[in-house]
UniProtKB/TrEMBL annotation:
InterPro entries for this protein: Rieske_2Fe-2S (IPR017941), Rieske_2Fe-2S_sf (IPR036922)
PROSITE patterns with a match to the protein in the record: RIESKE
Keywords of the record: 2Fe-2S, Iron, Iron-sulfur, Metal-binding
Signal peptide: none
UniProt-recorded name of the protein: Rieske (2Fe-2S) protein
Record organism: Bradyrhizobium xenonodulans
Lineage start: Bacteria, Pseudomonadati, Pseudomonadota, Alphaproteobacteria, Hyphomicrobiales
Domain of life, per lineage: Bacteria
Sequence ranges assigned to domain Rieske in this UniProt record: 4-115
Length: 137
């Protein structure tokens, strides 16, 4: 499993996402309230660029007339037909048993660790005094 350095932490503030291609795969990395998540940027329904869709929440109901809105900003809605996926896990809310988007672990590493390796930093210049977002593939 390779660890890819994708950006300095400052370039990916909360609520933003970064698109990139790693090992030939289209991927987006999200910062959700300070936590980082990688997701394949291809919808399992008909192949849309899923991660270009809007970030929404999850509406659930235990009883008629009662709607609870949770996971605000943690669900992505496909821009083509509206299927919804959990960014943390890739789980589909349309058909959880059949459809899932590949999710990738992402986290922050200090520059000092990145410099020691083993990391792939093809497009990012690494400085020891900075922190970096890393995705595992
Ligand atoms: S391609 Fe994503 S919902 Fe159809």
């Amino acid at each position: 499993m390779a660890r890819h350095v994708i950006a300095p932490v400052d370039e990916l503030p909360p609520g933003t996402r970064k698109f990139l291609e790693i090992e030939g795969r289209p991927i987006a990395v999200f910062n959700i309230k300070g936590e980082y998540f990688g997701l394949m940027n291809r919808c399992p329904h008909q192949g849309a660029a899923l991660c270009e869709g809007p970030l929404i929440g999850l509406a659930q109901s235990k009883d008629p007339g009662e709607i609870e809105y949770t996971k605000l900003g943690e669900i992505i809605r496909c821009p083509w037909h509206g299927w919804e996926f959990d960014i943390r896990t890739g789980q589909s809310y349309c058909d959880p048993r059949r459809f899932r988007v590949k999710a990738y672990a992402a986290h922050v590493e200090p520059g000092a660790s990145v410099v020691k390796g083993p990391y792939v930093a093809e497009t990012v210049t690494v400085k020891v005094e900075s922190d970096y977002v890393v995705v595992e593939l």
